[in-house]
Amino acid sequence: MKNRDEILAGAGVNTRLAHAGNDPADYHGFVNPPVVHASTVLFPNAATMEKRAQKYTYGTRGTPTTDALCAAIDELEGSAGTILVPSGLAAVTVPFLAFLSAGDHALIVDSVYHPTRHFCDTMLKRLGVSVEYYDPAIGAGIEALIRPNTRLVHTEAPGSNTFEMQDIPAIAAAAHKHGAVVSMDNTWATPLYFRPLDFGVDISIHAATKYPAGHSDVLFGTVSANAAHWEQLHETQITLGTCASPDDAYQVLRGLRTMGVRLERHQESALELARWLEGVDDVSRVLHPALPSFPGHALWKRDFKGASGIFSIVLKGRAPERYKAKAHAFLDALGIFGLGYSWGGFECLAVHVGLGDRRVAKGPEEGPVLRLQIGLEDVKDIKADIERGLAAARAV
Ligand SMILES: Cc1ncc(COP(=O)(O)O)c(C=O)c1O
């Protein structure tokens, strides 16, 4: 029989998701890996202990459970190694701490996830790192912002809440010319629809809380590095001790098995609704990279294999002082959508987006922006719920 790894390497994505990570033959044939709860690992004798000459040495440094998930993620990302951390936010902050030192300069996309900005403006600043926010549409033009001490260029595409696309290969090429590390928060696309390392990114970041876990019950992050950056990332993880729990690692691996089929459904429903909303009178704009009308659509089409289930709409606003009341009327009329942060779970969620933190990429100003996470519910029911929201907003 052909080697299992060889067969899987050439298989379709859902086949790989069903089998990536652990090999059942390594654990008595059980399909899933064991959930190993561990701090202590015993050594057979003092010499082995002194040299740490065995595969597992301490709970923070990996277990069969975390190894199974890391192997699955490496397979999907094409990475040299992956660390597992306790939240998506930690998946951003740990690599930033790995690659930035006092006196360094970091370029951060202005459409970044807000808590990433908060980390930069507070902790990085306190540690002596200077941070500059750049326009997501900058492309190769980022070279003009690179200084001799620029050490990190952080990307996130599509951007949080407003979904601006970025020319990742052009940005990575410019950054690498000057020796900067390129990181990307790729949570929206997952490695199924975009593989950052194939496009020149060094560090691929995921809030696995979203689609990989998929059920709104786990907080988790993964960070995957190419060979040149793996050692430093791994060393930082060990130094900080930011390890993830075995139960959560297990749940994320479990979630990966169905992520492909879930994403297909999220994608299909979200696109159907986004297309419908484009023609609705109360809506001024739909911010979804897979719509030809969206400014970043050409980049999405060039580089991405699909779209996930979250996008935003801009309502026609009338006067700015009524934006908030309109948005609240929309949200309060919803019965299927929950009002909640996060996304990537099985259920619809909506939130009124605040863009007050933006410095360069200001975002739409003609009306309130509402972010919609489209869940796995039936589209006709989701549509009826959005219609309820639109009718309530219209009355304001
Ligand atoms: C783009 C992006 N990155 C990172 C995170 C952080 O994930 P977590 O909630 O697991 O900290 C989020 C959460 O909403 C996100 O939207």
Question: Can you walk me through this structure?
Answer:
By secondary structure, the protein is α/β, with parallel strands linked by helices. It is built from 13 helices and twelve strands. The strands form two sheets. A seven-stranded mixed β-sheet has the order 1-7-6-5-4-2-3, with helices on both faces. Strand 4, helix 7 and strand 5 form a beta-alpha-beta unit. Helix 12 packs antiparallel against helix 13. The structure holds pyridoxal-5'-phosphate. The site of pyridoxal-5'-phosphate has 12 residues, from helix 5.
Q: Which short descriptors sum up this protein?
A:
396 residues; alpha/beta; seven-stranded mixed β-sheet; 13 helices; globular; binds pyridoxal-5'-phosphate
List the helices and strands and how they pair.
Elements: H1 4-9, H2 13-19, H3 46-51, H4 64-77, E1 81-85, H5 88-99, E2 105-109, H6 114-126, E3 130-134, E4 150-156, H7 168-177, E5 181-185, H8 190-193, E6 203-207, E7 221-225, H9 227-240, H10 246-278, E8 283-287, H11 297-303, E9 310-315, H12 323-332, E10 338-339, E11 349-352, E12 369-373, H13 379-394
Helix pairs in contact: 2-10, 4-10, 5-6, 5-9, 12-13
Bound molecules: pyridoxal-5'-phosphate.
Pyridoxal-5'-phosphate is lined by residues 87-89, 113, 160, 185, 187, 207, 209, 219, 221, 342.
